[in-house]
Amino acid sequence: KVILGKEPGENTSADSKTKVFCQIALAIFPEESAQDVATIGKRVEAHWRSIIGIYRKHVKRLKATGGGVGGNDEVPQSQVLANKGPAVGAKGPDKTTPQWAVNLWGKKT
User: According to the lineage, what is the superkingdom (predicted)?
Assistant: First the structure.
């Protein structure tokens, strides 16, 4: 569902973002919006943009590809561990196993 703008393939003009946020403000905050719908609409828009920013940050983390050219700023810890390969063999840790892997193995068993 498209909240702002047009549906994919739709040729008609859609409501403006300002109008949509004012409608949302009227639905969520009817008493406050009755006094000044434009101000409450701007606050709803600011909150919306904040949520979208947080969402995009999380999506960027989930799309980590290895940190090549133009990669992510931060590499998730799970990716760092995944790139180390199998640290513990099928028989369990041995003298070449890193300490962090021994600790994880102990928690698993």
Answer: Eukaryota
Q: Which residue has the tokens 């549906």?
A: 7
Q: Please, where are the H alpha helices in 1-109?
A: 17-28, 30-35, 37-62, 77-82, 99-108
Instruction: Name the burial class of residue 88, with classes exposed (0-12), middle (13-18) and buried (19+) by CB atoms within 10 angstroms of its CB.
Output: middle
pLDDT more than 90, % of the chain: 24
Question: Residue 35: which of 43, 44, 26 has the closest Cα?
Answer: 26
Looking at residue 73, what DSSP letter applies?
S
- What is the distance between the alpha carbons of residues 37 and 24, in angstroms, rounded to a whole number? 10
What is the predicted pLDDT for the residue at 59?
A: 84
pLDDT at 46 over 90: yes
Is the pTM above the cut of 0.70?
no
Predicted pLDDT at 79: 47
Whole-number Å distance between alpha carbons of 109 and 12: 61
CA 43 to chain centre: 21
**What does the alpha-carbon distance between residue 42 and residue 64 come to, in Å, rounded to a whole number?**
34
